[in-house]
TrEMBL record:
This is Uncharacterized protein. CDD domains: NGN-insert_like. Keywords: Membrane, Transmembrane, Transmembrane helix. It comes from Candidatus Accumulibacter phosphatis. The chain crosses the membrane at residues 12-30.
Length: 124
């Protein structure tokens, strides 16, 4: 650790300033915003756009049967699906923009969107 002795007070201030900027950038860089609507797709095409401010329940027909989507208190979930493994039902409540539940066997998906488009590691 002989190099630490070579740092002067200005160097330490620069290091601390850099760390503060990095720490402050985390919330800014990964903010998703406020969830505003849910996009329900059937077979890859938009079936319905649901405003999250209004509680409701819709039935989405698919090849295997009806998928039930519920909006309650600015969150959305797949309540029932005829698929064999129930992965989209187990996904639970979706609350943040970018979250998605996919019922692949029934070709139905529900995605939360906000004002800004969010990016994940796959889209980046």
């Amino acid at each position: 650790m002989s190099w630490v002795g070579l740092l002067r007070s200005g160097d330490w201030m620069l290091v601390i300033l850099g760390l503060c900027i990095c720490a402050a950038s985390f919330p800014w860089a990964w903010r998703a915003g406020v969830a505003e609507k849910a996009i329900v797709k059937r077979g890859g095409e938009v079936f319905s756009e649901l405003d999250l401010a209004r509680n409701r329940r819709i039935e989405v027909p698919g090849p295997l049967g009806m998928t039930t989507v519920v909006v309650d208190q600015r969150r959305v979930r797949v309540a029932a699906d005829p698929g064999p493994r129930q992965y989209c039902v187990r996904q639970g409540w979706l609350t943040r923009p970018g979250e998605i539940a996919i019922c692949a066997p029934n070709q139905v998906s529900v995605e939360i969107q906000g004002r800004q488009r969010t990016y994940d590691s796959l889209a980046y």
